[in-house]
Amino acid sequence: MSARDRLTDTLYGAGWATVKKLPEPVAVRLGRTLADAAWKRRGTGVRRLESNYARVLPGAGPDRLAELSRAGMRSYLRYWMESFRLPAWGVERIASGFAPKDLHHLTDGMAAGRGVVLALPHLANWDLAGAWVTTHLGIPFTTVAERLKPETLYDRFVAYREGLGMEVLPHSGGTAFGTLARRLREGGLVCLVADRDLSASGVEVEFFGATARMPAGPALLAQQTGAALLPVTLWYDDSPVMRGRVHPPVAVPGQGTRAERTAAMTQALADAFAGGIAEHPEDWHMLQRLWLADLDPAKAPGARRGDGAPERGAP
Description:
It is a single chain. By secondary structure, the chain is an alpha/beta fold. It contains twelve helices and nine strands. Strands 1-9-8-2-5-3-4 form a seven-stranded mixed sheet, with helices on both faces. Strands 6-7 form a two-stranded antiparallel sheet. Helix 8 links the parallel strand 3 (141-145) and strand 4.
């Protein structure tokens, strides 16, 4: 393990060990202080956040984007402070920490016995929502985690999420899809963060007026197993309670090839995600490149191929 990997693992370990012991008001103030310090440094993540917000709000000027990125970093650090503390929260604290709307879409789908896929973007605290489902609703579920480096950090995240009642499968390795399909055929619940493709083989969608790529897995699982596919969006307000909405099921098109049906369903997910993000952009924690034009400068509007044109929105 490199020195950098050891440092990363040590810092995360210290966060889990220390922050969860702090009184909640102290943890809240610490998160805000760290967020403001990171925002003032204007590192790569903050600048990428502003670049992504510029696509969500194309008419926003520099002052508005700076305001949004500051709020975005505060929201992001709230996520981390809550996540570090979640293992120490009791069932009652978790139950009072999340208030979703239209929950009947989930409970009706589970009652039907055909399985449910919940698909979420990187909004607010998806770990808290998951812990609420496993503890308050008493519904276990299966999810997938990206393999992080160092491996010890990945192990920490798996242990953390399993401690909250989740079954966690590695994203790599090629076996996750089959296991997820089996869980759904058994009438189970699968939860997937699905606004960023990690495989480079996802589905191209229109997202805030430009092309992005999102994973095909949620739509394919719904088609293959008959499970209900439900988009979910989350957000924070000024209270300690996170809010959320379970959206109506995404229908499987009656016609077209599997690829065409998958594309239509993934676009429907992208549209639901976009609606939630547009309402609460500061709670969208997308500190990475997402749109194809940002991943490949040659695909940016007005870019010239092969001439070394600068990447639009590059940090």
